């Protein structure tokens, strides 16, 4: 479209999208990270380069800022059962101190998100969701949550630091005590890290052994810096989000000697989804068929659909 004089009107500048920043943003700048928009945040995509960072995680250890991820908290005697109805995996079978990968599904079996669920206490459950889906997932959960379960969405108040690689356990033990090294895969415990209260889980998505450390935003910098100091003698380096992707493995031609962490999650999801599907089928033979009779959001048919898709976990 032009004016009557044939001169095009001035272009209207696009509105600048306001991006959020994690509490570790200044640390990333100081370390020379390349920052990019990701799920509404300015996040470090790489520091020295994707190949060098990928090799560091495969051969030593890498430190990730995952504070953009979403954290949902469920409290109450019925919390575990409520989350079990929302997620395809066998959440009801979790003991305190265990975590499980699964799929958050709707009534039709469509995947809302892929999540990890942590049972951190008898009546408390933590669910970690993908950064881009926090609002959507929270709305879905609230629609289906019974009134006797307290729900809190604390994503904006929680920092998440991941340390991944074959030397991760030794480095983290210097900051959080030797007991963290005894955690089993998908184990979780409450402890202290660099003097801060922390929830530490032996989970991750790089394909290597590793841990994820949940802390308050106010404690993020001290824990991040303490880990970097503790890892100086073990070749620990800060790494960007691209390092944990499948593309990184293809670019470098390297593969882990361990079973990929996301594959472990997917396998756990497949096995537990199958159990859940059978359990829902059995329970439905005993339950009334009315919609308000406490039946699972995930029907037996839906659980079967979800089982078939757990081998393709979504990206963070």
Describe the overall structure.
The chain is built from nine helices and 13 strands. The chain has helices at 25-30, 50-59, 79-86, 134-144, 168-176, 220-230, 246-252, 261-286, 300-309, and strands at 34-38, 41-46, 61-65, 70-75, 98-105, 111-121, 124-129, 150-153, 158-164, 188-193, 196-201, 210-216, 236-238. Residues 246-257, 259-296 and 298-315 have low confidence and may be disordered.
Quick recap:
This protein has 316 residues and is an alpha+beta fold. It is built from nine helices and 13 strands.
The H-and-E topology, N to C, reads as HEEHEEHEEEHEEHEEEHEHHH
Shape: globular
- The helix fraction, in percent, is 25-40%
Number of strands: 13
Q: Provide the spatial order of strands within the biggest beta sheet.
A: 10-11-12-9-3-13
Mean pLDDT equals 81
Sequence stretches where pLDDT stays below 50 over 5 or more residues: 246-257, 259-296, 298-315
What descriptors fit this protein?
316 residues; alpha+beta; six-stranded mixed β-sheet; five-stranded antiparallel β-sheet; 13 strands
Helix and strand arrangement:
Layout: H1 25-30, E1 34-38, E2 41-46, H2 50-59, E3 61-65, E4 70-75, H3 79-86, E5 98-105, E6 111-121, E7 124-129, H4 134-144, E8 150-153, E9 158-164, H5 168-176, E10 188-193, E11 196-201, E12 210-216, H6 220-230, E13 236-238, H7 246-252, H8 261-286, H9 300-309
Parallel strand pairs: 3-13
Antiparallel strand pairs: 1-2, 3-9, 4-7, 4-8, 5-6, 6-7, 9-12, 10-11, 11-12
